């Protein structure tokens, strides 16, 4: 279980200290990941109400959703997003390297600019007919899996890294055996959509695969949600999985022109406030606020950067053109 890091500044002071005249903008655009629609549909009105109470100003927050790599590309091509709430550090780093986001973006908010976190879990069919319990079951010849394309989805990169980190530990760092394990998993993929929501549709609506790999929060939401509840899907959280942080950043190249920087910072800061942390917990994310109770199971989470180097190294080694992922897919 990830050790919770205490927030190192008083949130109330940061959130409430902005004078009413500081924000000249009254509108924000949040570019987020594919499966976060419902979360931000509820968070945005919560923040809008908070801002109006604190500053007497009515604002509107708008949303854009897609795989985070596609979102980063869209911003570089002209999407005027004031903030990003992504599920992959590397996609914000891309924006930082192009001058859209401050280079020290991870120092601008607590917990490495990750207000909440999750892991990868499995959604299986009623009764778990293939008896899928952990990562080793996903490479069996009788099992087919569904998850998005790691080239376009941060969600999928965490699924790939979860399998890699599990195998690396099981085989005591033997690269050949680890690659063989991950290659078998990739060979068992029945559907490779571009984003997490597409993977959900493939599994739950189109009846593809024996297991859907996605964020734990999404697995729980699908299993318990009204849309698919009658199918009796079951949740499998492996005892060991990958730490998936959800980084946020202000797109300062946009906000400086639109005079929305202070509003954008407040929007992201409020994600750390207890009302927002409670909301995130209700959507089955893991949060840092110790006042917020959680019913999520204990899982030993492995941070990719503790094993595989920094995110720039991980990106170049595994996900860049010609990297390990491409090599394994070619097989």
Please explain how this structure is put together:
With 331 residues, the chain is of the alpha/beta class. Helices cover 43% and strands 15% of the residues. The protein has helices spanning 11-16, 37-55, 68-76, 89-97, 110-113, 154-170, 175-187, 196-205, 216-224, 252-258, 261-269, 274-282, 304-308, 311-319, 324-330; strands spanning 27-32, 60-65, 83-85, 116-118, 120-124, 145-146, 189-191, 211-215, 234-236, 240-242, 244-246, 248-250, 286-287, 300-302. The strands form four sheets. It has a five-stranded mixed beta sheet. It has a four-stranded mixed beta sheet with strand order 2-1-3-12, covered by helices on one side. Helix 2 runs antiparallel to helix 12 (274-282). 47% of the residues are buried. Residues 1-23 have low confidence and may be disordered.
Task: Characterize this entry briefly.
Helix content is 43%, strand content 15%.
Which helices and strands occur, and which strands form pairs?
Layout: H1 11-16, E1 27-32, H2 37-55, E2 60-65, H3 68-76, E3 83-85, H4 89-97, H5 110-113, E4 116-118, E5 120-124, E6 145-146, H6 154-170, H7 175-187, E7 189-191, H8 196-205, E8 211-215, H9 216-224, E9 234-236, E10 240-242, E11 244-246, E12 248-250, H10 252-258, H11 261-269, H12 274-282, E13 286-287, E14 300-302, H13 304-308, H14 311-319, H15 324-330
Parallel strand pairs: 1-2, 1-3, 6-7, 6-8, 10-14
Antiparallel strand pairs: 3-12, 4-11, 4-13, 5-8, 5-9
Helix pairs in contact: 2-12, 3-4, 6-7
Task: List its traits.
331 residues, four-stranded mixed sheet, alpha/beta, 15 helices, globular, disordered N terminus
């Amino acid at each position: 279980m990830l050790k919770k890091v205490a927030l190192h500044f008083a949130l109330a002071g940061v959130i409430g200290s902005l004078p009413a005249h500081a924000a000249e903008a009254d509108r924000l655009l949040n570019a987020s990941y594919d499966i976060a629609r419902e979360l931000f549909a509820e968070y945005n009105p919560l923040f809008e109400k908070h801002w109006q109470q604190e500053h007497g100003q009515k604002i509107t927050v708008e949303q854009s959703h897609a795989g985070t790599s596609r979102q980063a590309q869209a911003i570089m091509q002209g999407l005027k997003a004031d903030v990003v709430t992504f599920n992959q550090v590397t996609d914000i780093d891309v924006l930082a390297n192009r001058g859209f986001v401050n280079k020290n973006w991870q120092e601008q908010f607590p917990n490495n600019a990750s207000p909440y976190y999750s892991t990868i879990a499995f959604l299986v069919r009623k009764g778990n007919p293939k008896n899928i319990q952990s990562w080793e079951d996903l490479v069996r010849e009788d099992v087919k899996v569904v998850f998005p394309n790691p080239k376009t989805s941060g969600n999928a990169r965490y699924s790939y890294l979860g399998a890699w980190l599990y195998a690396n530990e099981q085989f005591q760092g033997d690269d050949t055996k680890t690659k063989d394990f991950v290659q078998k998993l990739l060979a068992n993929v029945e559907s490779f959509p571009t984003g997490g929501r597409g993977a959900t549709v493939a599994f739950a609506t189109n009846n593809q695969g024996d297991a859907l790999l996605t964020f734990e929060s999404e697995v729980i939401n699908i299993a318990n949600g009204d849309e698919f509840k009658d199918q009796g899907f079951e949740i499998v959280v492996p005892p060991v999985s990958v730490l998936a942080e959800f980084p946020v950043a202000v797109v300062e190249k946009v906000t400086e022109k639109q005079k929305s920087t202070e509003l954008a910072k407040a929007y992201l800061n409020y994600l750390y406030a207890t009302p927002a942390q409670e909301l995130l917990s209700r959507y089955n994310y893991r949060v840092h606020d110790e006042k917020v109770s959680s019913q999520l199971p204990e899982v030993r989470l492995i941070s990719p950067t503790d094993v595989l180097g920094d995110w720039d190294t991980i990106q170049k080694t595994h996900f860049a053109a010609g990297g390990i992922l491409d090599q394994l897919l070619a097989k």
